Amino acid sequence: MSGEAISGDAVSGDAVSGDAVSGEQPAKPLPPGEPADPQVTLWTALRHRPPPRFLLSPLPPRAYCFLLSGAFLGLPVLLVLALLIAAGLLLSVLGAGLVLLTGAALLGVPVARIERRRLRLVEPVVLPDPHRAMRVRDAGVRVWVRIRLRERATWRELGYAVLLGVVFAPAGIGVTLLLALAGILVATPVLVWALAPEPVMVLPGQAIPDPLAAVPFSAAGVVGFVVVAYLAGLLAGAQVKTAWFLLAPREEPLSRRVLELTRSRVRLADAFEAERRRIERDLHDGAQQQLVALTMTLGLAELELGDGSPAAAALLARGRGEARHALEQLRELVRGIHPRVLTDHGVAAAVTEVALRHPVPVAVDIDLPRRLPDAVETTAYFTVTEALANAARHSGASHVTVVGRLERERLRLVITDDGCGGADPDAGTGLSGLADRLAILRGRLVVSSPVGGPTELRVEVPCAA
Amino acid sequence: MLRIVLAEDAVLLRAGLVELLTRGGHEVRAAVGDADALARAVDAERPDVVITDVRMPPGFRDEGLRAALELRARHDRLPVLVLSQYVATAYATQLLGGGSAPGGPGGVAGLGYLLKDRVGEVAEFLDALCRVAGGGTVIDPEVVRVLLVQQTRGRPLSRLTPREREVLALMAQGLNNQAIAHRLTVTEASVVKHSGNIFMKLELDPAEGNRRVLAVLAHLRGEGSPGRTDADT
């Protein structure tokens, strides 16, 4: 049991293992975060499958389809883009030019949408839509255009559309032509036989005399098929990679998300703290004042009544007593929520106040050069009160010391009691709750409580001014 | 009849206090809602006694208390009764701090620190006010109780009988033997006997008036007390 430690470090990776990839549920999701990029299926197959198995798999034909359809899409896109830009620039003197240029800028959006579907020909990984979910019908055209133009994804998609037209479409056409050539080479003997006596020339000026002489060309054609299959695989894989790079939602680096989560947690804790203070203030300024006013009125009534009616005087005195009792309870309540003296005088005074009311003698030695941030003060205060409560409740201690210092911009508190020890941080919510509160401030709680005592709680909270 | 300047930011309480004080036969020269107005009112009215809430605008912290201390420094020994919503020995120490240091601003003569609840006991409240105005010291029984609880653990105070503790608490409120006897409905002679026992058990010199309160307070806050309250300044 000795040396049990709870430490809360605000930045812990496992806090964010939940995922934020939006969109459809992919069979094989694109993992967020760049270091472990998924492998392109085509390339993996190229590299690891034995050639016969790769060549006989459906992958090469799929790659051909992918590249050829890419060419059919890419060239018109390039044409439309060029026309839109040219016309837009020409008409830019009129207002219409701007509309055309906007259209050009947004052209990538529908193209990318088609591309994300087309990619499934060769790649089972589904690319989620990087755009903010929004329908033109709901948002209105103006809003839709404005938001899309502001999204980086839109511009990446435009870049992809240009690449598709300039690089991948011609490459696709090239592969298709090579594929056709290989086909023709393989079929040379048949052609020679079928077209005889017409001369068939594969190499210029050298007519192939008979089908048998064309067999080497067939062999070259088969080799050509193999080469084209691999070439198409490489090329389609490159396009998949490019699409992943440009068309997928950009995941923020994990560290940034952790930072954001940490910040939001701090904001949340601050909000709770502010709420506690508000409640305290409301009770203080509202209910408490009302009750004081009530006791005052009752007191005045008593005075007015004089010795006239002893029965009425007794009732008034009882009423006043009850009002006072309510005040005392309210005061206790406020102390538990957020003590006034902590706000007014800081940790040392507030802890001293608690120590004075504590059933076990407490020596307080807190010496701080200045007031600390609100959150630190509150957390420190409640840590000490919880530790003191534990000491009184469980340990049978006869003496407790609380020492607090500010060292190198860290508040260090040590709470020691001479009780029986054996405090278990995992039992009950008190200590672990404290560790949670401290973790928000990047603080630490170390509990050392060997059976037989003594119990020592060490608290460290950084408090940059 | 006392001329009083009152500072209390809660309108309800301010009105109630004005009514209470007026019925008690005193004259409220000014009733204000913040510390600055308090200073101006005191400068203008030169009252016999000031009653102020600890917590006041604009900061809602201890503006009233600090204003009172400043006023005492400016107007020699201006009697001040401080009302607080809750007991904080830190406040009591802050207010009476001058008392333990000889030559502090006016000592503790004419100082009072009471919980707001006490105003319900109208007669006693007015009585305490008069004692403060007359240069006496009044400490809320709750402060004394808290200090007593702390002190009774293995200390001479634990040897005090319950009756003696009652007498001690009333002494801290600045009551003389006669008033204590009246409050406890015992004879003055037995109060004298009790206080003699108290001072003997606490190993204090019997003293009169404020010095008696001071002696008790100094002892309660005194050396080696585990809960010293001066760590916050």
From TrEMBL, chain A:
**What is the protein named?**
histidine kinase
Q: Which reaction does it catalyse?
A: ATP + protein L-histidine = ADP + protein N-phospho-L-histidine
Which molecular function terms from Gene Ontology are attached?
A: kinase activity
Annotated region (Disordered), positions in chain: 1-35
Which UniProt keywords are given for this protein, alphabetically ordered?
ATP-binding, Kinase, Membrane, Nucleotide-binding, Phosphoprotein, Transferase, Transmembrane, Transmembrane helix, Two-component regulatory system
What the entry lists under InterPro entries is as follows: HATPase_C_sf, HATPase_dom, Put_sensor_dom, Sensor_HK_TwoCompSys, Sig_transdc_His_kin_sub3_dim/P
What's the source species' lineage?
Answer: Bacteria, Bacillati, Actinomycetota, Actinomycetes, Kitasatosporales
| EC assignment | 2.7.13.3
Q: Which organism is it from?
A: Streptomyces lasiicapitis
Tell me where in this chain the Histidine kinase/HSP90-like ATPase domain is found: 375-465
Q: Where are the transmembrane segments?
A: 63-87, 93-112, 160-193, 213-236
Automatic annotation (TrEMBL), chain B:
Has UniProt tagged this entry with the keyword DNA-binding? yes
**Gene3D superfamilies in the record:** 3.40.50.2300
Q: Which ranges carry the HTH luxR-type domain?
A: 153-222
Q: Which organism is it from?
A: Streptomyces lasiicapitis
Top-rank taxon: Bacteria
Describe the location of the Response regulatory domain by residue ranges: 3-131
Q: What is this protein called?
A: DNA-binding response regulator
Keywords in alphabetical order: DNA-binding, Phosphoprotein, Transcription, Transcription regulation
GO MF terms listed in the record are:
DNA binding
Kindly give the InterPro entries that the UniProt entry links to this protein.
CheY-like_superfamily (IPR011006), NreC/VraR/RcsB-like_REC (IPR058245), Sig_transdc_resp-reg_C-effctor (IPR016032), Sig_transdc_resp-reg_receiver (IPR001789), Tscrpt_reg_LuxR_C (IPR000792), WalR-like (IPR039420)
Entry keyword annotation includes DNA-binding: yes
Modified residue annotations for 4-aspartylphosphate = D53
Pfam families cross-referenced by the UniProt entry? GerE (PF00196), Response_reg (PF00072)
